[in-house]
Amino acid sequence: MAEGSSAEKTESPSQKRRDDARKEGQVAFSREVSAVALLGSYLLIFYFLGPMMIDSFGDAFRHSFINLSMSELSLPLVEELANGYIRDTVVVVIPFFFAAIVVGIMASVVQVGFNLTGKPLIPKLEKLSPLKGFGRIFSKQSISELLKSLFKMGVIGYIGYYTFETSMEQIINLIDMDSRILFSSLGSILGSFVFRLFLAFVILAIFDYMFQRWDLEQKLKMTKQEVKEEHKQTEGDPALKARIRQVQQQLSQARMMQEVPNSDVVISNPTHFAIALKYDREVMQAPQVVAKGLDYVALRIIEIAGENEVIVYHHPGVARALYFQTELGDSVPEEFYKAVAEILAFVYKTKKKKK
Q1: Among candidates 255, 267, 252, which has minimal Cα distance to 310?
Q2: Running DSSP on this structure, what letter comes out for residue 333?
Q3: 228 and 260, same structural domain?
Q4: Residue 322's domain spans which residues?
Q5: How far apart are CA 194 and CA 36, in angstroms?
Q6: Which of 46, 117, 193, 236 fits as disulfide partner to 50, beta carbons 3.0 to 4.6 Å?
Q7: Is 136 inside a domain boundary?
Q8: Contacts of 283 by beta carbon, 8 Å cutoff, 6+ apart
């Protein structure tokens, strides 16, 4: 029971897992957002350039039919008319071409940012597995795509029927209209249909993008064991790190003990704290802490001091305060100048008497 629960993906994905997935091309990307953005850009083009486009198409058609009726039909004439028609209409197509490129790139950047990777294009043998292929058919992604397709078909059918029903009288009157008015009316009906379709697809795109984010989150979730393994990889094995810290402390302590024989005095508690001070008035503004220790380390400092004829001065208050307020290599704080000066004066006087 415990193993089954630990294998469940219940943990939120870490930032490292998200970054790795992003490098692999696994991002929350909705094709519906790109499609609706492209449709919206086309609507804007139609809104601002629609009348000009309709006039351009109308002129191209009229020019073609007038020349066909006035001239004898021949291959050179057809080629000439075709080239002229293409020249007249290519200007209309160019805005849509550039809109497709710019909007497509912007829609991708807005959704996933700048993430250029070719890894999703690399063929994988696991994708050829029949079992996995069968599983993908009934996956959440496939079901969502099916539901989106059914929704689109239903929406297009309903909006098309609704637009046709509400525009029936206008469509009937198109029979007796001039060609220019005919194109304008058809454009108005078509624009109304596409705009309603756009609003419906905006709602679909919002829900699809939310689903893609949720689905990606579910795929990236981790088991408790995966979280532990990743923590070991990023932060290191706790046991190994503890061992490294222990070795570092031992090396630091060994270097510290080597400084005790060169110190001028060891101030002790007498057994709980020990502070070794060194003072060279030519290079130091104040005495410096060259060694410090608590309990066993303090006893070891006192022992080494005794072996090297370094005076041990018992002053519990100063020893305790310096232990907590200074680190190795620090100068003695200003508030201890007087007390330390008295201790050093005693030390120098004692050494002088011994000599």
Answers
A1: 267
A2: P
A3: no
A4: 256-354
A5: 11
A6: 46
A7: yes
A8: none
